[in-house]
Design a protein that fits this description.
2 copies of one chain form a homodimer. The first copy, chain A, has about 675 residues and is α/β, with parallel strands linked by helices. Chain A is built from 16 helices and 30 strands. In chain A, strands 21-20-19-18-13-12-11-22 form an 8-stranded parallel beta sheet. In chain A, strands 2, 4, 5, 8, 9 and 10 form a 6-stranded mixed beta sheet that branches. A 6-stranded antiparallel beta sheet of chain A has the order 23-24-25-30-27-28, with helices on one face. The longest helix of chain A is centred in the N-terminal third of the chain and has 17 residues, at about 140-155. Chains A and B meet through strand 4, strand 5, strand 8, helix 1 and helix 2 of A and strand 4, strand 5, strand 8, helix 1 and helix 2 of B.
Chain lengths: ~675, ~675
Amino acid sequence: MASHRSPPASLPPLPRLPFSGEGPQDISPAARRRVFVEALAPRVDGGRYPVKRVVGDRVSASCDLVRDGQDAVAGALLVRRPAAREWLRQPLQSVAGERYEASFLVDEIGQWQFAILAWIDPFETWRAGTRKKIDAGQDVELDLAAGALLLKAYASRADAAGADTLRSAAARLEDGSLVAADRWASAASPPILAAVAECPDLRDATQSEPVVIVVDPVRARFSSWYEMFPRSAGAPGRHGTLRDVAARLPYVASLGFDVLYLPPIHPIGRTARKGPNNAPNAGPDDVGSPWAIGGPEGGHKSVHPRLGTIDDLQALVRKARELGIEVALDIALQASPDHPYVTQHPEWFLHRPDGTIQYAENPPKRYEDVYPFDFYGAGWESLWEELHGIFVFWCEKGVRVFRVDNPHTKPLAFWEWCIARVKAAYPDALFLAEAFTRPKLMYALAKLGFTQSYTYFTWRQSKRELTDYVTTLARPPLSDFYRPNFWPNTPDILPTHLEFGNRAAFVQRLVLAATLSSNYGIYGPAFELMDRAAREGAEEYADNEKYQIRSWDLQRQDSLGDLITLVNRVRRENPALQDNLVTFHPTDDDALLAFSKRSADGAHVVLVVVNLDSHHRHAGHVALDLAALGVGPDEAFQAHDLLSDERHRFQGPQAYVELDPEFLPASVFAVRRHLRTEQDFDYYS
Amino acid sequence: MASHRSPPASLPPLPRLPFSGEGPQDISPAARRRVFVEALAPRVDGGRYPVKRVVGDRVSASCDLVRDGQDAVAGALLVRRPAAREWLRQPLQSVAGERYEASFLVDEIGQWQFAILAWIDPFETWRAGTRKKIDAGQDVELDLAAGALLLKAYASRADAAGADTLRSAAARLEDGSLVAADRWASAASPPILAAVAECPDLRDATQSEPVVIVVDPVRARFSSWYEMFPRSAGAPGRHGTLRDVAARLPYVASLGFDVLYLPPIHPIGRTARKGPNNAPNAGPDDVGSPWAIGGPEGGHKSVHPRLGTIDDLQALVRKARELGIEVALDIALQASPDHPYVTQHPEWFLHRPDGTIQYAENPPKRYEDVYPFDFYGAGWESLWEELHGIFVFWCEKGVRVFRVDNPHTKPLAFWEWCIARVKAAYPDALFLAEAFTRPKLMYALAKLGFTQSYTYFTWRQSKRELTDYVTTLARPPLSDFYRPNFWPNTPDILPTHLEFGNRAAFVQRLVLAATLSSNYGIYGPAFELMDRAAREGAEEYADNEKYQIRSWDLQRQDSLGDLITLVNRVRRENPALQDNLVTFHPTDDDALLAFSKRSADGAHVVLVVVNLDSHHRHAGHVALDLAALGVGPDEAFQAHDLLSDERHRFQGPQAYVELDPEFLPASVFAVRRHLRTEQDFDYYS
């Protein structure tokens, strides 16, 4: 071993392990637990992080119950509801081999827990063994006597009625005037079994570690986001306001979105303010970047005076909710040099040797209009409390959805603490992590609490890329904690395939985002108006709204608005598109991507085919995975294209499809057959 | 949720979880740990059970170090040797993405531990950032000053020499008379980096849970077992003795075995003794089953008087060891009705309602010559101590290898406690679990401490069955804790393919066992003399030695002895066969099974081809996985058949093979090329 050194004294001692080979070991009372609970599922990282579900989901919990020998084993699923002190109990069912399962409905938002309890069942062991002896014609007098003793032991743990039942059963077992088989049968009858099941001896039962399930609103899994800059919502030439945004709500609702996401609405700093197109020096009328938060007018708990007031925001939130829309605020935990925090709490920032405050940098790049917080500086605990307070402040104002800017540049432990604490008070709060960074860091943020996450979809284009990426996201372990939100564009990203794309390219990316992922969003009106003007050499919009006000003609004839309205309606009306139970189907043309999705109960199936080539018509065959469609091998079914309203009759595993980007580069077929049940499907087959 | 009930009061309370959604949470000091250690490997069940290795292995430990942002991360592997109090430390190396790795040699038998320590490295962060600023021509005066402060902080943690080095470096950074780039370079020079590396600030370092590695003797991974009944070792018509076994040692050594395993050598009960062929009533001269342990002469700590004395056993152990052979005792934790325990410790047995002791049964089958122990009865703790004492007793007599009979009918927790305790005193003790039961139970026994395990190999015959089974066993997670021991036959099992098989069938099963698994064994002389006489309707030997003495003619012309000698020599001389790093190679004939194995250092490779049809010659092509052979795409290499001594020249991915069972149904080729290194191989490719 190279360069070994003892760790310095400052190292905390490692915990001592059992059986560390350093001496004789006493017998632990835990050694009386004969059943081992293994491979408990679902879990994230062996139980270190919560599993995520939405309200209304049925959670299937399963585990191996491993024990020596042949004695009967019994198990229970313990469930604790969000505010409950009590654990509810239901029996585990044997699935196969030593696998056991039980499921429960999470019908309330909040933090649930489940655990497994397992024990040896002496009565079932006795019942089965004695039955075999009777069948083999063996003498069972002693066995019946042993059964009577056993029932009396159960009776001692039972309530009064149960004890009566059990003692009578014991007496029958001991009644030598009856035939052995009858004595056995009466003691093993359903009422006796029920009474026995009520009072197992759990002293030596094994209890698993509890698993936490964070149950979110349905919106956590199924949401359609529309991002817009409030200051661009006004009449041309005027700084938009939150009231203008309120006036825009019917438009957003008509497009079918249910989350309206606004970039930061706070006062914007003056110092080192950026001009249009990220120019280093702003003119006196330049509005600056909303992410340079804080000025004399206030900081993260204030509304930019030109946008309006907190009352305006609350009115917007209320009006939006009437239209089925949640307003999402953008929380960027950083300060402009003019933020009140800078003077009130200099200890929250990193100071350079000359006493100035350290601005953000990613050498050699500098962001002099932004001061990062020093999350581990002298004032770290009060800083964390204050930052947590920002979320609470807006929750108190009615906001429940937060898009968090660059969470990956803030400590992971901060998010674990902050999000859990916010959700303890506001369990329906939803956090979208805007992190485009190393995959493991993106996953860690999701494990630590973020409800939804941005993804790499924005850059995934080919059939192979999309298939691989979506397959990975849709399966455990990721599907248990990472909820993807697919965006074809954002104010930060105008991808090349849109910059140089035609109308079909926009439609294709819209349909892919909206059908491959149950959560998706667009940055508008840039998207529906197909803004393609890019800054030279950058994957970014020219005249970016991040730095200036833009005026958009929403009534333009070529707007994608009608198609977006249709796509969002199809999503709302088809439960299969509201989850990510996806199966890819092979095609004989690499430009044709085919996949199906189904609802958790199997009642709804949608088959999507997208022509990934936005310039040429493609036709070919899809090799249908009929099991994934819930369709029999020779069964005819109707495929109703919900985009074109055309109806096809398909039968067997070969389906011919033809997609012309001039018309529409995608089909979203509702698969219509007889009523389906969950058992008809191979999940992710 | 169906039939919910609160658990009875006897249920221990579940532990409270952090962030249980029940109220505001304080900030934990642990929140200062910025680096998250994830996906630590190797581990078994997330660290619940030890990882197994043998002495001389190099253990590669790896993990993800996930942290926010872009700051540099550093990590160390901490290793604790078996008897040490101190943890040794060595740096982790970046592998790819956020994966880090370090390896260490386990050069001592016993229980090792390793853990990961990880932290943010402010000096490396400073060094890299400042370099980029210098390269971009930016002013770095403040950065150099910040670097000087940082070095002074390191100096405060350093020893005297280190502090001098670091303070001088700080002074150079502050020396305004020098050019910035030179000041940077001198502060980032190798001696300074070395001094910095000696005194990181570990106050906020993250420490993983420690992982236990049980390091066994090499024999745990590579062993060749020979099972024989001592009482059959005498001259015909005479009860064999341990001295007869000692006289048999040269024969066993000449066959090339290194473990000699004896069925129980203890006094045998008289009550309900079984006669030949498991007859219910033994005659006065019948010897009984050695597994019906205990009589007036003693129990588990005694030697059967007709076999000899404890001194004879000790002499046998000594003489065997001189020949490179370990004697393995069979420990069966059960008693005959005549065992001294029955009268001395009735509380160790289960009593029936009439006061008699419960014999073993698996309804409707009864085993009236055997009393099982009551592992959780009134006297359970003293029973466990006594049973543990049996292993210690024989360890004190020099025995180090135990074949444990039916461990799966004794509590898992007993084995975890017992084996760990024995190994705390005798770290080189080796336990083979004779469990043919549910796979998860077999795996649990291995996780809980058994060194080696019997397997389903005995019944696996087809190419598909063998490929699937061996592949599963050879890879993590199983390969980290489950060490297979392949047996073509045992006294309990004469499989049909041997019962109805010819000589080639025996050869085939021998070669498969000896090459597919680094641990294997045969029950002899039944195997080498190809005993095929089965009890009618049972997969079991007629005139089974379990119930009677047999006499064997070891000199028979048709004995497989010479071939066994050759196979064991090939195993000893080829390190590739002493581990289970296996790759299967496709063949165009389902009767041809082809696989290669390599040594951990990649220096040795063996290619095995077996004709699974013992009646017909098969010829065909093997599609060689050249990477697994460590051979270049167009490189010619020699394949030297160590069984037939024929040499072939192979080149490219197609190899023609031809195997005639009349001659030999298998080839074991040594692959000979230029010197190979570990990097030439795709593991398990």
